[in-house]
Amino acid sequence: MTLVHEGVALAPHDVWGAWSWEPGVLLGLAVTAGLYARGWLGLRRRSVRRRGARRREAAAFWAGWFALVGALVSPLHRMGGALLWAHMAQHELLMVVAAPLLVLGRPFVVSLWALGPVLRRRVGSRLARLRPLVRGLARLEVAWVLHALAIIVWHAPALYGLTVTSELVHSLQHASFLGTALLYWWSVLTEARLRARQGGAILSLFTTMIYTGGLGALLTVAARPWYPAYGAAAPLWGLMPLEDQQLAGLIMWVPAGLSYLFATIWLVAEWLREPERRTVAVPLGNSPVRTVIDGAREPTHYRS
């Protein structure tokens, strides 16, 4: 049997030496980290505003970046060529851990500040031209469909089997998973708030949890393996092929489903706090008040 990742099925005794050093992946990770670090330091020197929020964004970005390293560089990457459950864990790291954390880190905005003033204006103006297209793709309905198609189509047995025998197909799978996941999480964590569609974002997360959990459940309870390409390697790890598939299904069903649930709870809490954020303090004569955008007024202590 021929597998990707240097053509051999990884065995347990080789796991700690099985780091993946693919030049394209390492270059992408290094460039991303360098631009973000330089941009964050530049913003920190230029302004004292939002420092607390900026630190939280940086923490989210670096957590997401290290999740990418775990998925694409650590031994988990090569284990994914031998074990279906490891391949599934790799995908979930990309889609439900790295992607939302990177979105919360606002990497595009921060990385722009790594560039010089002239280049930053040029890049910013060109990105501004693409904004209508990007915002169209980031609409809740569009992003949901694109991400759902990527997940469902790639889990078809014929296509999934190709990822084990072709490095090109494997890379395309990862790129589509991560790319549509970034778009999806941007739609629910950022664009939905800008468009005042928090309810739609919560529905999007709920329905995504349903179909991904359903697919994981089908993998778990299936009577026979869906992906025969993993049949020869699983016994090296003390697993029958069906047991390997059951573990993969459970990973997609439970931990991944919990990530959507936690994100839903967080969005609900943010939605409930939204009226407070939209409150602006203004003085009215001798009686300081706090005026809310919808026109309601509450007494408060106001300092000019």
> How many helical elements?
12
Instruction: Bin the helical content.
Output: 55-70%
Q: Structural class, from helix and strand content?
A: mainly alpha
- Shape assignment: globular
Give the spatial strand order of the biggest sheet.
1-2-3
Taking Cα atoms only, what radius of gyration do you get, to the nearest Å? 23 Å
First-last Cα distance: 74 Å
Major sheet characteristics: 3 strands, antiparallel
Residue-averaged pLDDT: 84
Relative strand content: under 5%
Compute the number of strand runs.
Answer: 3
Low-confidence stretches: 1-6, 280-304
Brief summary:
The protein has 304 residues and is mainly alpha-helical.
Set out the fold topology.
Blueprint: H1 23-46, H2 51-72, H3 75-79, H4 84-104, H5 107-112, H6 117-137, H7 140-154, H8 157-165, H9 167-194, H10 198-221, H11 241-253, H12 255-277, E1 279-282, E2 289-292, E3 297-299
Antiparallel strand pairs: 1-2, 2-3
Helix pairs in contact: 1-2, 2-4, 4-9, 4-11, 7-9, 7-10, 8-9, 9-10, 10-11, 10-12
Features:
3 strands, mainly alpha, disordered C terminus, 12 helices, three-stranded antiparallel β-sheet, 304 residues, disordered N terminus, single chain
